[in-house]
Amino acid sequence: MQAELIDFCQAKGDYTENRQIAEQERKRCKAMGVDVNRVYSLDELVRGNDILFSATGVTGGELVNGIQQTANGVRTQTLLIGGADQTCNIIDSLH
């Protein structure tokens, strides 16, 4: 598995304000020693098993459902992956 950083403009659109934010993010990454043009391996991104990954759907996707309005409130779905115990859970919540 690999990951690549994308800047704010790629994620949010190429507007003046977004370009300024993207430039600030690039400078911050450079100051921290992060190469924004490099593709990182999973082992480089995550060192060890003591991690927790969480993703809550806003729009529907392959991993989780998006936000749904129901008669009883708003339903969300969250994916939790635990590294230490190697668990994968889907949590359905009603707000």
TrEMBL record:
<dbReference type="InterPro" id="IPR004464">
    <property type="entry name" value="FBPase_class-2/SBPase"/>
</dbReference>
<dbReference type="GO" id="GO:0042132">
    <property type="term" value="F:fructose 1,6-bisphosphate 1-phosphatase activity"/>
</dbReference>
<keyword id="KW-0378">Hydrolase</keyword>
<keyword id="KW-0119">Carbohydrate metabolism</keyword>
<dbReference type="GO" id="GO:0005829">
    <property type="term" value="C:cytosol"/>
</dbReference>
<protein>
    <recommendedName>
        <fullName>fructose-bisphosphatase</fullName>
        <ecNumber>3.1.3.11</ecNumber>
    </recommendedName>
</protein>
<dbReference type="GO" id="GO:0006071">
    <property type="term" value="P:glycerol metabolic process"/>
</dbReference>
<dbReference type="GO" id="GO:0006094">
    <property type="term" value="P:gluconeogenesis"/>
</dbReference>
<keyword id="KW-0464">Manganese</keyword>
<comment type="similarity">
    <text>Belongs to the FBPase class 2 family.</text>
</comment>
<dbReference type="GO" id="GO:0046872">
    <property type="term" value="F:metal ion binding"/>
</dbReference>
<dbReference type="GO" id="GO:0030388">
    <property type="term" value="P:fructose 1,6-bisphosphate metabolic process"/>
</dbReference>
<keyword id="KW-0479">Metal-binding</keyword>
<dbReference type="Pfam" id="PF03320">
    <property type="entry name" value="FBPase_glpX"/>
</dbReference>
